[in-house]
Amino acid sequence: MKIMQTVIQVSLSFATCLWLQSCSQPSEVIAPPTATPSSKKITLSGSHTIGSILFEIAKPYETAHPGVKIDVKENATWRGIADVRQGTADIGMVARSMKADEKDLLASTIAKDGISVTIHRDNPVKSLTNQQIVNIYTGKIKNWQEVGGKNQPILVIHRSEGVAALEPFLNYFKLEKSAIRADVVVTETDELVQAMVGKPESIGFSSIGVVESIKDIKLLPINGVAPTNENVSSGKFPITRPLNVVTKNPPSALVKEFIDFSLSQEAQAIVKQKKFAPVK
């Protein structure tokens, strides 16, 4: 029994010693994990037309804001809307008026653009009436000689469903999609240009700002109004569209700052240099 008591006393003394030793030692402080710096990247997705403008506007903005990266992904208007709604882009680039079912998006117009009929530079035709344009696109006029041009068949180039330039064109000329008689259908403006180069018999329609500087293509007046940025800005040109940037929710401070910068005097000068109509 005495041996048992002795063992117990030794065990208690040893435990007490360990407890006192731990109390005399400063407890180890575990530092919290280092916070990861918040991202300073703004992702834009959508219209090629707007992307070409914002790519240039991003350059002076990034210079003035070291550490901020503007990632411009050019695809299509519908994709920009989808990406913003899904949260994979901060800003959507929408090259048309907003629709009734897009009220969940907040839009800012950074520029204006006109949509005009395009023909090859070697085509002697200088203008077409609205009715002649309708008749060409519906297959009622099939030869350029019928509208004062050379004796050659007209090659009608149309735009595919979902292209932002399509809707204002159809709306202005009151054309139904099913009524169009096209020889070639393209999606992107680059494809339109490629389809028209070397084909003096071709006709299409596109953004004034995008094709104005392409030497092989010329823009026709619409209803007697020249396709110029001045006429787009003033409202004289009959087929126009807003070039919008959109966000799903009120933008973060960083995103708002970039959108505000796109409306600044410096950025609007870039809009004009890119052959689009500034809004300020």
How many helices in DSSP terms?
10
* CATH homologous superfamily annotation of the largest domain: Periplasmic binding protein-like II
Provide the β-strand percentage band. Answer: 15-25%
Number of strands: 10
- Level-1 CATH class name of the largest domain: Alpha Beta
Overall mean pLDDT: 88
Order of helices and strands: HEHEHEEHEHEHEHEHEHHE
Q: How large, in whole angstroms, is the Cα Rg?
A: 32 Å
- Stretches where pLDDT falls below 50 for ≥5 residues? 1-38
The assigned structural class equals: alpha/beta
By CATH, the architecture of the largest domain is named 3-Layer(aba) Sandwich
Oligomer: single chain
Give the tally of structural domains. Answer: 2
CATH topology of the largest domain: D-Maltodextrin-Binding Protein, domain 2
